[in-house]
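Worked example 2:
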Amino acid sequence: MSLFSFWSRLKSQLSGNVHVGKDHLGNNYYSIKGTKRRFVDYGGGVVHHGALPPLWRSWLTHRRDVPPTEKELKEDDWKKQLYMKKVEEFEKKDELMQIEERKGGENIVKGSQSIQFEEWTPIKKGKQEKLKE
């Protein structure tokens, strides 16, 4: 434990700060006794509020009353992994579609089906008026 870390903890304990939790990035979360104030001690090197885990950020900004539990944090991590897996699958499909477009331009792969596009030509102004009649 570094001297700075020791001093920060001692200062927090003497000032009435209550340690509420810690995230996987090494950040410590506190509330101040007798007030509604909450803050984070960026121990993980991240000093940007947007880079904090969403559940902890919700607690800091008073969108939730209680700090996240270990169970909630694990569920959130699971959802993030599932989301990343779906993004990866989507990117693979998108890459296949782009390759197919570059090859022929007419067949676009969509799952196991392909869509045929008809060639489109604009109608000239004179022909457009004849079609209306």
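The first helix runs from residue 3 to 15. The radius of gyration is 28 Å.
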